[in-house]
Amino acid sequence: MSAKGPGLRLAFEKNCVDVDLSLLIAAVALPAGAKASVKYRQIVKSIETIGIVEPIIVTLDRDQPGRFLVLDGHMRLEALRDLGVTKALCLISTDDEGYTYNKRVNSLSVIQAHKMILKAAEGGVSVAQLAEALDLSVNTIRAKFRLLDGICPEAIVLLAEKPATSGMFNVLKQMKPMRQIDAAQTMVNLNTYSTRLAVALLRNSSPDQLVPEAAQRKTDATPSEALKRLEQELAALQADTETLQEGFGPASLQLEIIKTHVGSALLNNPAVVRWLAKRRPDHLQQLQKLSEIKQLPG
Questions:
Q1: pTM score, two decimals?
Q2: Using an 8 Å Cβ cutoff, are 106 and 161 in contact?
Q3: 190: closest CA among 298, 284, 285?
């Protein structure tokens, strides 16, 4: 960000461009009372403390050359204006007739958030300030500092932009580097990053694949203890499966019908997409997410 308000700093860099706020057109106004909300105050406080975390998503305005329609980030834009910032980091969608931009923008992964927090701390932001800005406890912030301690670089690269959880990384720390890489690759292949899967991979590891403490626990576990844990996991898995089976069939059919209509009748119609981008960008974003669903979560 080349023009910053007092105390502002870039917290997490992405492949974006600086755009003058005067060139950004908010397609929709903020809801009445939005600026009085807790969420808006948190956004303002976060920007003041650690800077912009996620870019504003824009597309070229065909009706006004040189200007941009805001597709996502209306509250961030308004907060920047209130703080007196003149430019903002933006990710520009070059295709407003589709929804490719939505595939490139996601919520921060835990690794990205970890790097953002470290960079803010290196810039002089205290743990207390971070906790207040991010609405997290001081202990949680400190835990985020240690998120990747004991994780090998190759596993970090594999999971950098994935929706992994902090708990999953705590499980991986019990494995040696080569097993961490195998586990991370398995998660990527399955497109599943749950702590439960990480625990299953841990228990399927031989003692020589684990760090000494975890290997000792595995060696010390009696057959009856291991069997008891397995029975508990199977019972939990069976309960989850039965719950899914009850509604899976009807829900899958409804999902397929809705996706077909959204994908073919709406998002493949350039005129509809342009209208939504200008007048209902929030609706457009939700429709895009719906069209990208491959299957119901299991």
A1: 0.52
A2: yes
A3: 298
Angle, to 10 degrees, between the axis of helix 110-122 and the axis of helix 38-50?
50
Q: What is the pLDDT of residues 87-132, one digit of tens each?
A: 888 877 765 443 443 444 445 567 877 877 887 788 787 888 777 7
Closest residue by Cα to residue 88 from 25, 30, 159, 152? 25
Give me the sign of the Cα torsion angle 265, 270, 275, 278.
Answer: positive
d(CA 114, CA 117): 5
* 26: helix, strand or coil: strand
**What distance in Å separates the CA atoms of residue 239 and residue 132, rounded to the nearest whole number?**
39
SS3 202: helix
Residues 6+ apart with CB under 8 A from 93: 57, 58, 59, 71, 100, 101
Q: pLDDT tens digits for 66-84?
A: 898 888 888 889 999 999 9
